[in-house]
């Protein structure tokens, strides 16, 4: 969900409501897949995390760390557990039962929220309903950002608003994000240096 959503639910009758983003590319079977998951898992809200395509240097450098951080803070197992309070939804694909969402106030309940997809999941789950999150490589795809400025602004906004505008938590999340990006590079660099040293030692022995 982004700002394109209106505060009222669609007027045409349907059991389910699908919220999405403008940059999402759908496979023809994406909607059917979500309905199937909802039936199998007895879920009132199904969210599918889109596969992110990364083309520019900054996307490839920064987005994997962001995805790793999100999966660490919001483990999919806990999102799907009715006993855990952890809740998260991906704005690119949120399939909800109309009556459940309407009972929580519909889009009026999140009209002032910057991270409306996260708060949608929280509202539905914390009201006692089942949510289920899944991931895909082909059902839905998206390219969230392209330039460094877009990536940085998007991640900064999500980190701050996602932690309810708590500066300490936002800074901690930023540190975690940087760690997720820097640590793998540091490990690779360390192994690279060690490999060169080992190769040099072998050449001297020979």
Strand content: 5-15%
SS content category? alpha/beta
Instruction: Please count the beta strands (DSSP E, at least 2 residues each).
Output: 7
Categorize the overall geometry: globular
In the predicted model, the low-confidence regions spanning at least 5 consecutive residues are 1-7
Largest sheet report: 4 strands, mixed
Please give the alpha-carbon distance between the first and last residues. Answer: 63 Å
Mean pLDDT: 78
Please bin the fraction of helical residues. 40-55%
Quickly count the helices.
7
Q: SSE string, helix = H, strand = E?
A: EEHEEHHEHHEEHH
Brief descriptors of the model:
disordered N terminus; 7 helices; globular; four-stranded mixed β-sheet; three-stranded mixed β-sheet; 206 residues
Report what the structure shows.
The protein has 7 helices and 7 strands, in the order ββαββααβααββαα. With 206 residues, the chain is α/β, with parallel strands linked by helices. Helix 6 (148-162) packs across helix 7. The longest helix has 39 residues, at 167-205.
Overview in brief:
With 206 residues, the protein is an alpha/beta fold. The protein has seven helices and seven strands.
Task: Explain the layout of strands and helices.
Elements: E1 16-19, E2 24-26, H1 30-41, E3 45-49, E4 51-52, H2 57-73, H3 76-79, E5 94-97, H4 98-103, H5 116-126, E6 131-135, E7 140-142, H6 148-162, H7 167-205
Parallel strand pairs: 3-6, 4-7
Antiparallel strand pairs: 1-5, 2-7, 3-5
Helix pairs in contact: 2-7, 6-7
